[in-house]
Amino acid sequence: xxxxxxxxxxxxxxxxxxxxxxxxxxxxxxxxxxxxxxxxxxxxxxxxxxxxxxxxxxxxxxxxxxxxxxxxxxxxxxxxxxxxxxxxxxxxxxxxxxxxxxxxxxxxxxxxxxxxxxxxxxxxxxxxxxxxxxxxxxxxxxxxxxxxxxxxxxxxxxxxxxxxxxxxxxxxxxxxxxxxxxxxxxxxxxxxxxxxxxxxxxxxxxxxxxxxxxxxxxxx
Amino acid sequence: xxxxxxxxxxxxxxxxxxxxxxxxxxxxxxxxxxxxxxxxxxxxxxxxxxxxxxxxxxxxxxxxxxxxxxxxxxxxxxxxxxxxxxxxxxxxxxxxxxxxxxxxxxxxxxxxxxxxxxxxxxxxxxxxxxxxxxxxxxxxxxxxxxxxxxxxxxxxxxxxxxxxxxxxxxxxxxxxxxxxxxxxxxxxxxxxxxxxxxxxxxxxxxxxxxxxxxxxxxxx
Lengths: 220, 220
Fold this sequence. Notes:
The structure is a homodimer. Chain A has one domain (2-219): Phosphate transport system protein phou homolog 2, domain 2 (Methane Monooxygenase Hydroxylase, Chain G, domain 1). Helix content of chain A is 84%, strand content 0%. Chain A is built from 6 helices and no strands. In chain A, helix 1 packs parallel to helix 3 and helix 3 runs antiparallel to helix 6. Chain A is elongated. At the A-B interface, helix 2, helix 3, helix 5 and helix 6 of A face helix 2, helix 3, helix 5 and helix 6 of B.
């Protein structure tokens, strides 16, 4: 069993490596939007292959652990949670690529408005990502629940910015391409928040052994 | 072991029930767009809770199978594939809800163009969904590979319709709201295609024991 415990630690270490790659990608894609930092966007494109490779590696490692040992209860939940979180992290890497692509396209468009709401939404989303991953590392159910509570705030900020951007488009067709990029960026930020919510739900499943998805009452 | 074989069959049956609910939701959301069928959209909204409930049920069932038996090789791959396909199917249910919402919003807007490309993209996507699920049931690797091959066709159709819709918006600001709905619908159709691709990749993992994600050469 000594061996198995070490392998579980290795699984966690790999997942943390994956998390930190994805968090950097998110950070850089947001800098690409807000600071119009083209090299940050290019860094996101360059790191995509590494994220994809480590996703496959973690999946194989976790499935081997299931095959070679007969994990029960908490260990089994850890491995299943790792498989799910791994999938979410890979998709979050894809979303950072989408954001970086739109950031690049936006650099070639006239500035249509001060991007007050994007830094605000981005800040909230980054904090949700950070908290959901911290909750996994420290097995902190309260921290995981705080992530679930933030999701609605991101949704309503995004809805407000949607209507604002549509009226910018209607006012001047010159704004359309840039507004579409900004709409795509806020949509991708919202999807990052959704994946953080998934991770927080997996942490609650891991720590509490309960499935809180689609059960508002169990999230309290 | 007799018992375990029966339970694996039950897992497959549950997943097929989930697939058929999700396929109906996709079909209805597309009817809501193309035939402006408001009751089809409402049916999609009504069935969302059932899809969410069965997702949780399948996850619990699969995790119990892992916990109670010590599945090896092919059985283990089947259970892991079921867990992954289950997640994809639930997200596909969410995407149908998104499409049905945009369809409803579109019914209140003036018609801006004959929707020639949407039925075309929708037809392709529905065939990808069908084939990926058939490939799972019949463990047909060739059929799974044919799904991977269709993904590029959907992407390029969507890119073409994106540019067409942007020019509609630029031509007349009156078109903006309807064009945004149509953009969202094609985007959600493309995401349905992405999830079918994920399922096809899981089928290849299940049948061949190889991971083809991010490895173009292994998909041949």
